[in-house]
Amino acid sequence: MPTDPMSTDAVETTRKRLSRAAEDLDTNLIAGLVSDSADRFGVVPYWERVCVPLLAESPGREPTEIAVEHALSEGMRVGLDVHRRHPRRPYPPDGVLLAGAEQELHCLGLHALAAARRELRRGSLLLGPALPWAGLTGAVYRARPHSVVVWAQTPVTGRTYRLIRFARDFPSVRVLAAGPGWIEPLPSSIIRLVGLAEAVRVC
Ligand code: B12
Description:
This protein is α/β, with parallel strands linked by helices. It contains eight helices and five strands.
């Protein structure tokens, strides 16, 4: 388990290193920094105090800035993905399925959740971004999860009526809406997740 508490100095230093590596488009270095820091400080504090603020600052309008944003997010995805990963460990039956909503390319929150769960020795079936609703339905029939977390970054992909229909089709599955894209009111049968720490607790 991670041992070091995250001091303000550590936040600043790790953040600067990540920014510099992103400016250099060094995705391998970013991945290494992310997995080392997650190991040292724990996924939740590192993600909440360093990664999320840095991503939120990403302007990404000019062509060079767009490449920097891609390098940062891709390096982070890989770094989170290798953290405590045992590639041949099977998906646990009756587990947690994580997926991006149809056409949703943002998926880092789900990678952070999967990494934080691995830290607690809990596996998840992460099916990545942009899983069509029909694909999600098929996956639930096959994998039989007890909980399904669907990420939407913007209202364009946060189609509430689809999520409600999906929840109705699987009344015994706990459905959780994650990410800032779910802006419409949700029925009480669907749990809205607002942060990583909460998501780890609830899942
Ligand atoms: C990285 C990134 C990308 C990457 C995604 C890579 C990946 N593997 O995920 C790429 C380059 C693919 C991308 C693509 C696009 N992007 Co983009 N992207 C971003 C960026 C820089 C970071 C997003 C991110 O992952 N943040 C980390 C997450 C977790 O942070 P968050 O959701 O804000 O977190 C909040 C909560 O969700 C919660 N939280 C944090 N962690 C967790 C974890 C869990 C489990 C839970 C439950 C909650 C939670 O706490 C936070 C504070 O409230 C943002 C910039 C920004 N300012 O947000 C733009 C941004 C989200 N993108 C944007 C856009 C427009 C796009 C594109 C349409 C661009 C384009 N023209 O192609 C496409 C989308 C295509 C699609 N169909 O989805 C806009 C969205 C605007 C809007 N609200 O409509 C933003 C805001 C940029 C901007 N300022 O315009 N993007």
